[in-house]
Amino acid sequence: MAANLDGERGQASVELVAVLPAVLLVGAVVWQLALAGHAAWLTANAARAAARAELVGRSANAAARSALPASLERGLEVKRLGKGQVRVSTRIRWLSMRSPTPLRVAATSSLGSDH
Question: Tell me, what's the pLDDT at 8?
Fold first, then answer.
């Protein structure tokens, strides 16, 4: 009976080692998706700040940069679409937050009146 329990313990260890890479991969993918969502939320906030600045005659680029953390400023693009209309895009960071991915998130904000 004791030999049977030892074999089951060994099997559980092997199963854990076999499943661990899949669990780590799923965790990394979920974390990367969270980083992408956070970047999208921050980019939308930067677009609103840039649109407000554009509407009052200030620098939309400076306003967008001030609304983003330093990790998202690299690769930042700010386009003025019209009075009070701005499109801000930036690159999504990898898990390490040191280098950008080739993927971008963008947000457009419009605070000016259309009439």
Answer: 64
Owner of token pair 């690299």: 74
Rounded CA separation 104/91 (Å): 4
Count: domains in the chain: 1
* Cβ–Cβ < 8 Å for 79, 67: no
Give pTM, 2 decimals: 0.75
Whether the CA torsion 50, 56, 57, 58 is positive or negative: it is: negative
- Report the pLDDT value the prediction gives residue 102, as an integer from 0 to 100: 80
Q: What is the DSSP string of 30-77?
A: HHHHHHHHHHHHHHHHHHHHHHHHHHTTS-HHHHHHHHS-HHHHTT-E
Strand partners, 89: 77, 106
What does the pLDDT look like over 22-49, one tens digit per residue? 999 999 999 989 989 999 999 999 999 9
d(CA 33, CA 39): 10
Instruction: Copy the structure tokens of residue 59.
Output: 């620098």
Classify residue 115: in a domain, yes or no. Answer: no
Q: Which domain holds residue 22?
A: 2-110
